[in-house]
Amino acid sequence: MSTIAENIAKVGVRIREAAQASQRDCATVGLLAVSKTKPAAAIRQAFAAGVRDFGENYLQEALEKQRELGDLPLIWHFIGPIQSNKTKAIAEHFAWVHSVDRLKIAQRLSDQRPAHLPALNICLQVNVSGEPSKSGCNPDELPALAQAVTQLPNIRLRGLMTIPEPTDDLACQHAAFARLRELQDGLGLSLDSLSMGMSHDLEAAIAEGATWVRIGTALFGAREYSHN
Ligand SMILES: *Cc1c(COP(=O)(O)O)cnc(C)c1O
Predict the structure, then answer these.
(1) What is the pLDDT along the chain (228 residues), one digit of tens a residue?
(2) Does any ligand 1 atom lie closer than 6 A to the CB of residue 110?
(3) Atom of ligand 1 nearest to the CA of 198
């Protein structure tokens, strides 16, 4: 079994090679380590190997780890589905939220962002594959949502996020990520972030312009349990 440090090095090589293949500077692709279901000790190891940004999907689990890791200068990203009753704690304890898919949630995050913190960085999650059960707004709802979100005072709209239907077909991977980039370009706003690509499809995502790849399994190994 490889260690977390070895996995981070391997993912770093994948990111650099993918960036190089599409003439991108690899410094424009951020590694977001998805630590859901993994213990604080795993995050400590990733930190020691140079990772600073961590993504969590479940609020209570994230808050517990944040308490245990309060001595480290970590940057926390919330990437899971958001219920209204969770927005206050999310606004208080995260620097980024990648999974905003409706205005009500964005309004609550803005209202509840503490005054002493900088604006909360937001990505709007878009359902590009059109699966009915998936979270994410529909592409046709996106322009109005994005416009409304830019008016909110305490959040900063940075870009879009998607979780496409999993597929091993490279052409399908590219098509989904290209769609997200085209949707972002079509908004005509000055956005700098595209949160797309996971362990199995980060190469396609980087080729299509990802600025955050969200990587769990390839860094921390398979997840033994899940909350849902
Ligand atoms: C779990 C999760 C990931 C990481 O997926 P891996 O396939 O383990 O890399 C990325 N993004 C989101 C939103 C997730 O929930």
Answers:
(1) 579 999 999 999 999 999 999 999 999 999 999 999 999 999 999 999 999 999 999 999 999 999 999 999 999 999 999 999 999 999 999 999 999 999 999 999 999 999 999 999 999 999 998 777 778 999 999 999 999 999 999 999 999 999 999 999 999 999 999 999 999 999 999 999 999 999 999 999 999 999 999 999 999 999 886 654
(2) no
(3) 9
Question: What whole-number distance in Å separates Cα of residue 46 and Cα of residue 43?
Answer: 5
Q: Is the CB of 11 under 6 A from ligand 1?
A: no
Residue 225 domain-assigned (yes or no): no
| Alpha carbon of residue 162 to chain centroid | 9
Amino acid (1-letter code) at residue 73: P
- What separation in Å is there between the alpha carbon of 131 and the centre of ligand 1? 17
Number of separate domains in the chain: 1
**What does the angle CA 55 – CA 56 – CA 58 come to, to the nearest 5 degrees?**
165
- What is the domain-level CATH number for residue 192? 3.20.20.10
Domain-embedded: residue 228: no
> Structural domain of residue 92, as residue ranges?
4-220
Nearest residue to 79 (alpha-carbon basis) of 128, 34, 138: 34
Is there an atom of ligand 1 within 6 Å of 82 CB? no
pTM over 0.70: yes
Pick from 43, 51, 10, 31: nearest CA to 213: 31
Please report, for residues 33, 76, 209, the alpha-carbon distance to residue 64 in angstroms, rounded to integers and kept in the order given.
17, 13, 33
